[in-house]
């Protein structure tokens, strides 16, 4: 079930009711293998999002050619002379706390702002480490922007994942010549093996 709107960045985390973190459920286990095969065939493509500490990206493959892996296309605003298969894990919110940009676009826009204006914008970088270093991680955990203001971590991660979702759907639609629907995609999010259960569940909740 996709609870995040693809039409606008509208604080996707705010509609969540349960602030607690429950253990991961084995949702990948399906007793009826025939039913599982039927579900598999509904997906035309698998998109894997690599949400990294320093940089992030995604890759995808179509179910009819599973051995052919496509890495996301080059990012706008990348550094000259560098093959940009990933973009920096940076995110920028407007002074009104709405999503503005991610990656190179966020980095460059923020650093080009006049200092008197930039202090009103909320810029985050390398924020993924917070999930690993916070001992009492919860759905209420905050992240601190460069200007010292706090925003719910769940909201920032949800914005970031929504950005990748829209980028991937746009690329798939451009490549296929027609609009790709979210229901045609199986989404995969990679997480570090050393992460404890609460951090993994946090990422899952942000994705929801």
Automatic annotation (TrEMBL):
Residues 1-21 are annotated as: Disordered. Residues 1-13 have a biased composition (Polar residues). InterPro entries: ATPase_NBD (IPR043129). SUPFAM superfamilies: Actin-like ATPase domain. This is Heat shock 70 kDa protein 12A. It comes from Chloebia gouldiae.
């Amino acid at each position: 079930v996709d609870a995040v709107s693809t039409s606008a960045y509208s604080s996707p985390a705010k509609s969540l009711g349960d602030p607690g973190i429950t253990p991961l459920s084995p949702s990948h286990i399906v007793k009826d293998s025939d039913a599982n095969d039927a579900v598999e065939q509904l997906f035309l493509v698998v998109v894997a999002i690599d949400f990294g500490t320093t940089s992030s990206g995604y890759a995808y493959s179509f179910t009819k050619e599973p051995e052919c892996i496509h890495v996301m296309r080059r990012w706008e605003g990348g550094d000259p002379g560098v093959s940009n298969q990933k973009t920096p894990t940076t995110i920028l919110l407007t002074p009104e706390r709405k999503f503005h940009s991610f990656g190179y676009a966020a980095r460059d826009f923020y650093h080009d702002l006049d200092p008197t204006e930039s202090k009103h914008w909320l810029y985050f970088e390398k924020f993924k480490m917070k999930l690993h270093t916070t001992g009492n991680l919860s759905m209420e955990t905050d992240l601190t922007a460069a200007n010292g203001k706090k925003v719910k971590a769940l909201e920032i991660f949800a914005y970031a994942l929504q950005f990748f979702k829209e980028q991937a759907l746009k690329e798939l639609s451009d490549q296929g010549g027609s609009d790709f629907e979210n229901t045609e995609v199986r989404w995969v999010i990679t997480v570090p093996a050393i992460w404890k259960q609460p951090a993994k569940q946090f990422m899952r909740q942000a994705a929801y």
